[in-house]
Sequence to fold (374 residues):
Amino acid sequence: MTAGTITCRAAVAWGPNSDLVIEEIQVQAPKANEVRVKVLATGVCHTDAYTLSGTDPEGLFPTVLGHEGAGVVESIGERVTNVSVGDHVIMAYVPECGQCNFCKSPKTNLCQKIRTTQGAGVMPDGTGRFTCKGKDLYHYMGTSTFAEYTVVADISVVRIREDAPLDKVCLMACGVTTGIGAVRNNCKVEPGSTVAVFGLGGVGLSAIQGAKMAGAKAIYGIDTNPEKFAMAETLGATVCVNPKDHSKPIQQVLVELTGGGFDYTFECIGKVETMRAALESCHKGWGESCIIGVAGSGQEISTRPFQLVTGRVWRGSAFGGVKSRSQLPGMIDEYMCGDIKIDEMISKTYPLKDINQAFEDMHSGKNIRGVVLF
Ligand code: NAD
Ligand code: AHE
Ligand code: ZN
Ligand code: ZN
Fold:
């Protein structure tokens, strides 16, 4: 049976810096090597808010945002071989084609097969599958999960075990995987290390649990919102620090507190000032700092080059260095056996109509993660 166009609800971002609007949209059938997914759950990540704020150089409007989604395959286009109708899937904004130079390299997860069209808000053939009131809507991050149905490239869907609860494992589509993966894959934190995590949202708390699993002996959580500290401690933080409690720059405070700084630091906020602080909180000679946070258009990082000359390393992480289709299913297994914690991080669930409230609760610091259930 050939699939037709579906009319369904979506949260449409008509322009930057405005509320999302729940609209009826048309979602065309998947073309060759495309998959249409019935989205059942999606987290709201700070990156969605970043793009909505208008500071993402790749932000295009009108669009359907959302990139932390899980659902069930509704229909498939020609030549799709990796999933079938009814499969449970996670949509991955970092796809894995398995064939490009990036996929073949063990040094990166950044498959580039469809990166150009993904950044341009269209499917790999250069066209879009969404319309609303006769207008084309852009896709977002190759996923667009703030819709009841979405169309994604086949290399962007990860088939997962059917007993994994989609309303929880949707967070593996971004926040949880990113934080844990950055610790494991990008920094390769060793047992006995000292670690500091700047920013205790969904990403930072996942870095904390990653550090605990890696056997770090000291794990500092740093946040200007002390309401995040209890969860950080539950997930493995040994010390929590609020920069607002100190008059000196936070890097100076931390270097003094630790007698020299950390083996590894992770910036999970997205501000260039805290990126600098995270780098300068590293131990002379060997400390490594990983930028995970996404900073706005035109922003640049800086530090004294002497910081690097004297042995500190600055690196970055996208999706925790995780190769999506080959590595996510194993991480879902880790969740299913209780090693990776997700449930604790879901502060509140929302129906689609209340999605703007989920953004508000993230901005006000009430939520670690809000999840929209369809
Ligand atoms: P979040 O909003 O849930 O958490 C951010 C935390 O930072 C909050 O707890 C906030 O109180 C804290 N914070 C803000 N300013 C601070 C400051 N000056 N000092 C200390 N703490 C401060 O965000 P999130 O969803 O966890 O995402 C974190 C960052 O990571 C964002 O920039 C997001 O865009 C980015 N991100 C990147 C990737 C990647 O693959 N590189 C993946 C996911 C998210
Ligand atoms: N569009 C932005 C970059 C945004 C960015 O860095 N995205 C991260 C994922 S954030 C998920 O919450 C990422 O994986 N980047 C790798 C990539 O290829 O986009 C800009 O600055 O243009
Ligand atoms: Zn994200
Ligand atoms: Zn590839």
